[in-house]
């Protein structure tokens, strides 16, 4: 994904332009500064994750913003989007960002937009985000600051995902470099566990689930044990479910998830 991609142009046709707000930014336009578009493969896709984004970019025209990773400059939080039918986003300068859209361009301004997402605070620590259509969000390095894989629940009606760089609208043309990222699509048809954590006396694990099925943990204390101990079932939700086992004893335990 090129560093010149602007999230403001998500879903926009050729011929759109935005003048940079800072002297020297120049003018962004489509398709030169269009974000990367990814088709969401099926209606079953409930969650996406971003596997180890790599690369660096240089944002704007100032030497201070060189070799920026997908996490961006956390010491420089800036607003972007907030135009062309998208809600405003506050995220690290130069970070990898995304937005879900349905078919067609975003509704032209002026319209009521989704609420702003501001990643200066606790949002960066959440391992599950549920963005709305036309509501840009931070992707960054694909993980929380504590190392958990971050999952994004696909909003109803979404058919496309757009990826770009967080920069002031109209200032992307001066950027250089690129990011590379693998987008993983998860469905509830396959229970794939992620973020298994043993902390203190509690074990937890997450997976994509359905709201018409029940799920439960099973465990045994050694591979040689024949039987699994079943823990109570819990009704799933349309998105990500996290199951927990506590209080724990001993120093090891093997887990699996059953679905009924």
Question: What's the layout of helices and strands?
Answer:
Elements: E1 17-19, E2 27-29, E3 36-39, E4 47-58, E5 73-81, E6 88-93, E7 96-101, E8 117-118, E9 128-129, E10 137-138, E11 151-153, E12 160-165, E13 176-186, E14 194-199, E15 202-209, E16 214-220, E17 229-230, E18 234-235, E19 239-245, E20 254-259
Parallel strand pairs: 6-8, 9-11
Antiparallel strand pairs: 1-2, 3-12, 4-11, 4-13, 5-6, 7-10, 7-12, 14-15, 15-19, 16-17, 16-18, 16-20
Please tell me about this protein's structure.
The chain is mainly β. The protein folds into two domains: 7-186, Galactose-binding lectin (Jelly Rolls, Sandwich), CATH 2.60.120; 194-259, Immunoglobulin-like, CATH 2.60.40. Helices cover 0% and strands 41% of the residues. It contains no helices and 20 strands. It has strands spanning 17-19, 27-29, 36-39, 47-58, 73-81, 88-93, 96-101, 117-118, 128-129, 137-138, 151-153, 160-165, 176-186, 194-199, 202-209, 214-220, 229-230, 234-235, 239-245, 254-259. The strands form six sheets. It has a four-stranded antiparallel beta sheet with strand order 3-12-7-10, with no helix packed on it. Strands 9-11-4-13 form a four-stranded mixed beta sheet, with no helix packed on it. Strands 16, 17, 18 and 20 form a four-stranded antiparallel beta sheet that branches. It is elongated. The model has no long low-confidence stretch (mean pLDDT 89).
CATH class of the largest domain: Mainly Beta
CATH fold-level name of the largest domain: Jelly Rolls
**Unreliable segments (pLDDT under 50, ≥5 consecutive)?**
none
- Given helix and strand content, the structural type is mainly beta
Distance between the termini: 41 Å
- Estimate the global geometry from the Cα principal axes: elongated
Biggest sheet record: 4 strands, antiparallel
| SSE order | EEEEEEEEEEEEEEEEEEEE
Count of domains = 2
Helical run tally: 0
């Amino acid at each position: 994904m090129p560093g010149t991609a602007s999230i403001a142009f998500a879903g926009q046709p050729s011929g759109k332009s935005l003048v940079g707000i800072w002297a020297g930014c120049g003018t962004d336009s489509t398709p030169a500064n269009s974000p990367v578009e990814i088709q969401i493969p099926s209606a079953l896709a409930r969650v996406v994750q971003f596997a180890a984004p790599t690369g660096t970019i240089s944002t704007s025209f100032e030497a201070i913003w060189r070799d920026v990773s997908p996490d961006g400059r956390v010491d420089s939080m800036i607003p972007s989007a907030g135009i062309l039918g998208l809600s405003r986003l506050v995220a690290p300068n130069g970070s990898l960002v995304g937005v879900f859209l349905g078919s067609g361009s975003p509704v032209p301004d002026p319209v009521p937009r989704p609420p702003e997402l501001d990643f200066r605070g606790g949002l960066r620590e959440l391992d599950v985000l549920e963005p709305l259509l036309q509501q840009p969000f931070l992707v960054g390095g694909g993980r929380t600051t504590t190392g958990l894989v971050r999952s994004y629940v696909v909003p109803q009606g979404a058919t496309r995902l757009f990826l770009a760089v967080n920069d002031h609208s109209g200032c992307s043309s001066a950027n250089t470099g690129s990011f590379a990222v693998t987008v993983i699509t998860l469905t509830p048809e396959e229970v794939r566990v992620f973020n298994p954590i043993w902390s203190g006396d509690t074990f937890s694990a997450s997976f994509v689930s359905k709201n018409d099925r029940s799920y439960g943990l099973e465990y045994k204390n050694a591979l040689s044990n024949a039987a699994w101990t079943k823990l109570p079932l819990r009704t799933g939700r349309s998105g990500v479910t996290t199951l927990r086992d506590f209080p724990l004893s001993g120093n090891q335990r093997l887990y699996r998830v059953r679905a009924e």
